[in-house]
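subagent[fold] <- orchestrator: predict structure for attached chain, return tokens only, no commentary.
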Amino acid sequence: MDIVLIIIGIILLLIGFVGCIIPGIPGPPIAYIGLLIQVFKTQNPFTAKFLIIWALIMIAVSALDYIVPVIGTKKFGGSKRGVWGSIIGLFAGIFFFPPIGLIIGPFLGAFIAELTGGKETQSALKAGFGSFIGFITGVALKLVVTGLMAYYFFGSFI
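subagent[fold] -> orchestrator:
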């Protein structure tokens, strides 16, 4: 049974890493479930305190993932229109130009949304850049947290 739990945990961690990059898949929460199911092994490798701390970290990073792109866009002068444009651009980029679309989609989405909202080119470019920075920051945070969970997961049976 322990082997099955380890395999399920590895699969969940891998899905978690994918979810850090692809929107719509909650990467850190899925990776956390991979840690959490390890408590059902013959010898539980994690304490309750450890799991609670990681649950709080996972919740914080998941919340920040929604906030950081908005902050980035607004910090660089973008509007709500630019934020929505970056989200739409992200999804469009994933489907039409993978994998590079994942990087340029949010930028182009925010840029185009700001232009169509009446902003000048320079201002729209700044908002697009802010959206891009926010998106990359969110992805980086999720990858770091998921990577640390993977580290503890694999460290638990070495």
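orchestrator: received. Logging for downstream: The first helix runs from residue 2 to 21. The chain has a mean pLDDT of 89.
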